[in-house]
């Protein structure tokens, strides 16, 4: 029968899991800030700027801003990559 890992390994593993979880939340917050900065700031996104119809472009920018805000305000809501992708798809296709 294999020996269980020493207690120090379990504690270090738990600490590592907390660090990864915190880093993941921070990454989502940074992504939200990046989305908003690219839409509002001077360095615009070429994808949005190439949409010629102003009404369509405004709708796309609005949805992207709302998604960026969600990432800033409630990053813990998207605990998995699958949840994050689903939220992005839902934001893009109202």
How would you summarize what this structure contains?
By secondary structure, the protein is mainly α.
Task: Report on the architecture of this protein.
This protein has helices spanning 7-40, 46-49, 54-73, 81-92. With 94 residues, the chain is an all-alpha fold. It has one domain. It is elongated, with a radius of gyration of 19 Å. The model has no long low-confidence stretch (mean pLDDT 84).
Into which percentage range does the β-strand content fall? under 5%
Question: How are helices and strands ordered from N to C?
Answer: HHHH
First and last CA, distance? 55 Å
Structural class: mainly alpha
pLDDT averaged over residues: 84
Which parts are unreliable, with pLDDT below 50 for 5 consecutive residues or more? none
Task: Please count the helical segments.
Answer: 4
Q: What's the alpha carbon Rg, rounded to whole Å?
A: 19 Å
Number of domains: 1
Shape: elongated
For the sheet with most strands, the description reads: none
Provide the helix percentage. over 70%
Number of strands: 0
């Amino acid at each position: 029968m294999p020996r269980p890992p020493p207690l120090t390994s379990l504690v270090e593993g738990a600490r590592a899991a907390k660090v990864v979880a915190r880093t993941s939340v921070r990454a989502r917050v940074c992504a939200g800030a990046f989305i908003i900065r690219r839409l509002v700031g001077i360095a615009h996104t070429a994808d949005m700027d190439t949409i010629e119809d102003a009404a369509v472009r405004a709708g796309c920018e609005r949805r992207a801003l709302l998604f960026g805000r969600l990432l800033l305000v409630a990053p813990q809501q998207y605990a998995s990559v699958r949840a994050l992708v689903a939220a992005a798809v839902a934001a893009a296709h109202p």
